[in-house]
Write a structure and sequence with these properties.
Blueprint lengths: L2 H9 L32 E3 L13 H7 L13 H12 L1 E4 L6 E3 L10 E7 L8 E6 L4 E6 L4 H8 L4 H4 L3 E7 L2 H7 L3 H22 L2 E3 L7 H8 L7 E10 L1
Antiparallel strand pairs: 1-6, 2-3, 4-5, 4-7, 5-6, 7-9, 8-9
Length: 248
């Protein structure tokens, strides 16, 4: 079988194998945390409460019709209220189920595993200094991680020269912690996680369109460089998707 056919086989439904797999959940091994832990000494940044006041378009049909990818942004900053809404729309927690088993969020996820973490490269957001942040969906807060010299140039370089990624108001970067899905589904988790990433970014598209901002899904980036930039190990956590956001 050729390599491309092997990949096609992997993409097909393989649920019939489920009965042959002993997942860690079936083995009664404790599940991983619902959210990447942070230090108690970390200073958390409060985000504004979710408000529909940031929305300009309300008709869902118009939003579907107008949605597209934008690669040019103005120099105007994003309001913190707008960023708060975008974060909630893409990973916001609506409910934590009994005994912290799972989170019900604004996007679907296979088995409610929600394997993603959201990082932000902030250039122009009112009330936030330039730098790299991580979103805490359970708390709906941010953690400031670090600043870096020549941030715009570095992000552009990691995105393989796509300059609009580096000069956006904010770039969303989603990492994957695969064990969150593997704990329940073992090797069957990986196809589901790819589907889940699409749910997240589509919500970003729709929310941006509703507030007359723009975004563009990015799958072309230097894996080693961007993992190293975010200071994640590239094995148990690695970047899978990014999307710049700006005013249009």
């Amino acid at each position: 079988m050729s390599e491309i056919n092997k990949q096609r086989q992997w993409m097909k439904s393989n649920a019939k194998e489920w009965g042959n797999i002993q997942s860690d959940q079936k083995k009664k091994i404790p599940q991983p945390p619902l959210e990447k832990p942070y230090d108690e000494d970390d200073k958390l940044i409060e985000l504004p409460k979710i408000s529909e006041k940031v929305l300009i378009k309300r008709d869902i049909t118009n939003i579907f019709e107008d949605r597209k990818s934008y690669r040019k942004y103005t120099e105007k900053s994003l309001a913190l209220e707008e960023l708060s809404y975008l974060l909630w729309a893409t990973q916001g927690v609506k409910k934590i189920t009994a005994n912290n088993y799972s989170t019900m969020r604004t996007v679907p996820s296979a088995g409610t595993r929600h394997p993603f973490e959201t990082y932000l490269v902030v250039n122009k957001v009112e009330g936030l200094k330039t730098g790299v942040y991580r979103y805490l969906p359970i708390e709906h807060k941010l953690i400031f991680l670090f600043d870096d010299e020549n941030l715009e140039a570095k992000v552009t370089d990691m995105a393989l020269g796509q300059s609009f990624v580096g000069n956006s108001a904010v770039t969303f970067i989603w990492s994957c912690i695969p064990y969150r899905g593997e704990w329940r589904y073992n090797v069957l988790a990986h196809k589901n996680m790819l589907l889940d990433a699409g749910h997240v970014c589509q919500n970003l598209y729709l929310a941006c369109e509703a507030m007359e901002c723009g975004t563009c899904a990015i799958g072309a980036y230097d894996q080693f460089s961007i993992d190293k930039f975010l200071r994640i190990d590239g094995e148990d956590e690695f970047v899978v998707y990014l999307a710049p956001v700006g005013k249009v």
